[in-house]
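Q: what sequence does this backbone want?
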């Protein structure tokens, strides 16, 4: 039963001095998320990070990020978000994921596929340097088509940063994936894809693209206020931080759980 844990929008942030304060909110929040995963009754098969892992794209931020993740005894597969630096992300996780670019350019989009306990995880970079919205573009869409066609019978999870469906919050939907329709048409040709997972919006939401269930992961740090009015408020809220757990490739439809951070023990046994 392959179990994929997803963290997103971690935002490890350095201060004005370029150093990361261990007492800062993002650091404490990530430490709590790691403890929560370690407390799960079954060890997950891997952790996927769907972008905005750090706040300013600085070496000290990536160094602290990887140190905080080091207690997890599982593979870690990262993707960048709009706050990340592709080259520094590649360097930070060089020994943990296949992050080499095809032409050797450290700032090229991150794209790779890995096998996890009979399931395939395909990670595809949707960031546009210097812009907040997402886009795959023809080259990455072609790569994704070929990558999915290479394993048509293997249950697959596609990981991106920007959600490929509108979540109903105006200012977030303005920053979504611009070529979601093209992605949907592609996914309709590859029914082995059981889930599309993303982050970016600091909320848990469920939608669909190309007939595939798509979800966004809560932030391990701060959640965005759910305001579906127009024009609406752009604000953070006091909702608890969290992460996602995806169970895929069991011979049944994939299932996703959203877990608030914290170490939760059984309170009572239910007959």
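A:
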């Amino acid at each position: 039963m392959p179990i994929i844990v997803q963290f997103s929008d971690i935002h490890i942030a350095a201060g004005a001095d370029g150093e990361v304060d261990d007492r800062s909110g993002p650091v404490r929040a990530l430490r709590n998320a790691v403890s929560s995963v370690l407390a799960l009754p079954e060890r997950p098969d891997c952790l996927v990070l769907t972008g905005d892992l750090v706040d300013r794209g600085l070496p000290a931020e990536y160094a602290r990020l990887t140190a905080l993740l080091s207690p997890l005894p599982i593979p870690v597969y990262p993707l960048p978000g709009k706050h990340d630096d592709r080259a520094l992300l590649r360097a930070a996780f060089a020994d943990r994921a296949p992050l080499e670019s095809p032409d050797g350019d450290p700032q090229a989009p991150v794209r790779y596929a890995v096998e996890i306990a009979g399931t395939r995880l395909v990670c595809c970079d949707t960031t546009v340097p210097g812009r907040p919205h997402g886009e795959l573009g023809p080259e990455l869409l072609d790569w994704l088509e070929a990558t999915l066609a290479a394993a048509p019978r293997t249950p697959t999870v596609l990981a991106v940063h920007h959600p490929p469906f509108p979540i109903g919050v105006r200012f977030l939907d303005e920053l979504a994936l611009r070529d979601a329709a093209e992605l949907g048409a592609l996914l309709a040709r590859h029914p082995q894809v059981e889930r599309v997972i993303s982050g970016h919006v600091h909320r848990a939401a469920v939608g669909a693209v190309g007939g595939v269930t798509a979800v966004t992961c809560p932030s391990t740090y701060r959640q965005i206020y759910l305001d579906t009015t127009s024009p609406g408020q752009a604000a953070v809220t006091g909702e608890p931080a969290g992460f996602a757990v995806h169970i895929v490739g069991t011979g049944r439809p994939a299932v996703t759980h959203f877990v608030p951070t914290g170490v939760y023990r059984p309170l009572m046994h239910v007959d």
